[in-house]
Amino acid sequence: RAKDLGKGRHEVFATGMHTQIVKRFQLEIDLHRAIEQQEFELYYQSIVSLTTARIVGFEALVRWNNPQYGFVSPAEFIPLAEETGLIIPLGQWILQAACQQLAVWQAQFPTNPPLMMSINLSGHQLTQCDLVDYIEQTLQETGLNGESLKLEITETVAMNDVETAISIMLRLRTLNLRLSIDDFGTGYSSLSYLHRFPVNTLKIDRSFVSRMEDTDEDAAIVQTIIMLSHALGMDVVAEGVETAAQQAKLHSLGCEYGQGYFFSKPVDSKTATALLDKQFNNMMFA
Ligand code: C2E
Ligand code: MG
Ligand code: MG
Ligand code: MG
């Protein structure tokens, strides 16, 4: 009896695992096809100056519209694209699409300094050997300056292999690209390494911003990250700003930029263009 029960349990477990593996495998096949069929779309979320309240640039955030599953979150497919190496062609498509869009916006909405585009780089992309060449080529094709592009590298990826990350970052800086550390505060950061990263910006993770008004500890963490960044010559973007109170508090703490639902959710290129239109028309008739 006990043996039978055990066997039965084993089978249930195996079936569950089997289903998971099949599901994952199917997702992987779909991901391959999605790249060929161009099922991806870039959404853009504005990054806003907390001093002038103006849009200074956008972060490109990839979306997958799967005809069968509908919308698949990047939190779900980016890790899979990483594991399977599909992030390389997908990442190249993202870079190209984001650069083309930025070139259009810079021509349509000239500002000084020009509008910027932030692009997320995953771990696998960072160590891709032709990354620098590829970016250089994309800059040439789109006529953009390196300074207009900001590459976001998560703290976790940067800390995973500090020496390698630093040497790649230095090579990226030879193209005048800007760099930022994404989701700062969620990984294991050693402060003794932070100053060695040749980065321009720290992005405070959303989790601290969202708790900032609840606990004094979180407010203190946000304040400390801002002070630390400035001491290291970096500016700060606060992620996940959802309320006017958070915006005001961050501004009073000296945080330069904000990003979050309070300003805009990530939106398609047409809607993002309308945001810029509104800002520019307001300026002309002010
Ligand atoms: P991330 O780079 O930290 O991007 C910020 C995420 O926070 C986005 O989620 C954005 O929609 C969300 N967010 C922004 N403001 C708010 C807010 O006020 N409240 C809340 N609750 N959420 C907010 P998303 O687009 O789902 O992307 C998740 C993650 O997937 C990104 O985190 C990034 O790590 C990765 N990812 C997205 N697009 C790309 C890409 O093109 N390439 C790579 N390698 N990774 C990407
Ligand atoms: Mg990011
Ligand atoms: Mg982030
Ligand atoms: Mg994040």
From TrEMBL:
Residues 24-280 form the EAL domain. This is Diguanylate cyclase/phosphodiesterase with Chase sensor. It comes from Tolypothrix tenuis PCC 7101. The chain holds residues 568 to 853 of 853 of the full protein.
